[in-house]
Amino acid sequence: MAVIEARALVKTFGALRAVDGVDFRVERGETFGLLGPNGAGKTSIMRMLAGLSPISGGQLFLSGLNVAEQSRAVRARLGVVTQADGLDGELTVRQNLEVFGFLIGLSRRQARARADEVLGFFRLRDRGDAEVDELSGGMRRRLAIARALMGEPEVIILDEPSTGLDPESRIRVWEELAELKRADVTLLMSTHYMDEAETLCDRIAIMHSGRILDEGSPPELIKRHAGSAALDIRPDGASREDIRSRLRAAGLPYREVGAIIRVTGGNGGVPRLPALEGVQVSERAANLEDVFLTLAGRGLQEDQP
């Protein structure tokens, strides 16, 4: 039995189908990523799973429990980390954890003991008496994830876990998420950062406009849709319209990024360019951004503010 399973899942807001009939499964101990730009439907799926938004159609299960019909039992098995951390700035780090423990049904003694455990796991024990407003953005994010662990959940859902963090803080959060995986916690995360998805996820569902375009491991997706390498073309006197025309005639997907035209291959190969004059061509390793280009005809970052 899959830990998480969506069957023809739908979420509507009036006439808008934010989630348009998606199917996916997440196995126990797996880190599964929903990758796509803002508006792709990632957060809507997570809100439905957490019981924060009603399901408009289809079915959603967690550990065999129907989310729509058994929401209380589902929430008892879940830890949730939203984009807004919801931490109480008037409480200390430890108090934030202990109060949350009380709210989910732990006794005072259990909450103290569990808070000590998760503070140690996230290397925050020495900041236990600090006020939340004194923490850096990276520490606040780690505390929000620590709070989600207070009930020892089977599954943690993380909505954009490292958005807004500096590079060093992002890496620290990634390290701790990897530790959770080694502890056999199942993670469902959303992101629009391809390096985050490639680093953390066993499998990825690439989303666009409420639909899953494809899913698989990062290497599988890259090989299938972008090949072993991609080519960057820099016009050096050649007409950009002539280059576009020749690429379209050759059936090669491309995207213009500033002065560069990026071309992808597929089926494990390197794209074979038509004859082009007056250009500079450089080869690089294909990545998940190239996969999204091939599948959706646009880049992952284009819809970002």
Can you give a write-up of this model?
Helix content is 33%, strand content 27%. The chain is of the alpha/beta class. It folds into two domains: 4-221, P-loop containing nucleotide triphosphate hydrolases (Rossmann fold), CATH 3.40.50.300; 223-296, Alpha-Beta Plaits (2-Layer Sandwich). Helix 3 (93-103) packs across helix 4, helix 5 packs parallel to helix 6 (167-182) and helix 8 packs across helix 10 (288-296). Residues 301-305 have low confidence and may be disordered.
Write the layout of secondary structure elements.
Layout: E1 4-13, E2 16-26, E3 31-35, H1 42-49, E4 57-62, E5 65-66, H2 71-76, E6 78-81, H3 93-103, H4 108-121, H5 137-148, E7 155-159, H6 167-182, E8 186-191, H7 194-200, E9 203-208, E10 211-216, H8 218-226, E11 229-235, H9 240-249, E12 254-257, E13 260-263, E14 279-285, H10 288-296
